[in-house]
């Protein structure tokens, strides 16, 4: 984490300003809300990451894309891959909620003689990439990041799903959404969504063994060293709209990020960002609750009706938009964890 300021300057030409939106989002030229049009079937959201990656390959901006495919036996388990075709990229659709060693693919990049590369990854992978990029012999490197998902090992994912879902065996994906609920998507036609208020989660049981220990020392939720970042917690919730049709947001950090957007062209529908409310009281209470759970303080989940009522009220009156995000500079400086994601200020 201590290397971030120097790396920001090397990658983006300057360090972030410690005021305004850059305190939370890092160096950027623009923040935008975004959807892929049409949506990419099979994606976790509308397929913004997939759309940009396919466009970069189609337009000749890059020769190959490092992305996260899926294990053949477990579609939620990540398998880093070097995508050389659009079909390869489409095969990597969807979020895999476990740690993914994306840099393992760099040996294949060198062996295949790839000179123009798009790398997709979360903050920890991007930090490592930026530390070695000068040794890769590339003519051009583009980096598209996603927000950190506080992932862990497979055992942690299985523990989380078994404690939270009513049918763990059919889970196809999940997100901590802006309506103060975990949305769990289940396989099926049509897909079934299970929505559990944050306040009803068994925080004591989930405070250990779910998130990787390395994540507890990281505050790069917003992926400050990527050229272009796709996330969702800075977007007001669209009630009644499921993930596969919901708006996300883009952080465009530099000219390489702009080039990726130009390649995608009108395949992305963009709109201005918005903000309202004050995140500070909720952030403070969330950090305190998180610490109590981590230190063994007994916390009983709220009854379902209480959790639903709280989630509904906070969705209506809580903070919304980009200034409600929990990023570097607040919760994630303290202790990123399940409860930190739960901090709701995702609005």
Give an overview in words:
This protein has 347 residues and is of the alpha+beta class. The chain has two domains: 4-151 and 214-274, 3-Layer(aba) Sandwich (Aspartate Aminotransferase, domain 2); 154-211 and 276-342, no CATH class. Helices cover 31% and strands 20% of the residues. It contains 13 helices and 13 strands. It has helices spanning 4-12, 21-25, 48-58, 86-90, 106-111, 123-132, 154-164, 203-206, 255-264, 280-294, 304-317, 331-334, 338-342, and strands spanning 30-36, 64-70, 78-83, 116-121, 140-146, 171-176, 181-186, 192-197, 228-231, 248-252, 268-271, 275-276, 320-321. The strands form three sheets. An eight-stranded mixed sheet has the order 3-2-4-5-9-10-1-11. A hairpin with a 5-residue loop joins strand 7 and strand 8 (192-197). Helix 3 (48-58) packs across helix 9 (255-264). The chain is globular, with a radius of gyration of 19 Å. The model is unreliable at 327-347 (pLDDT under 50).
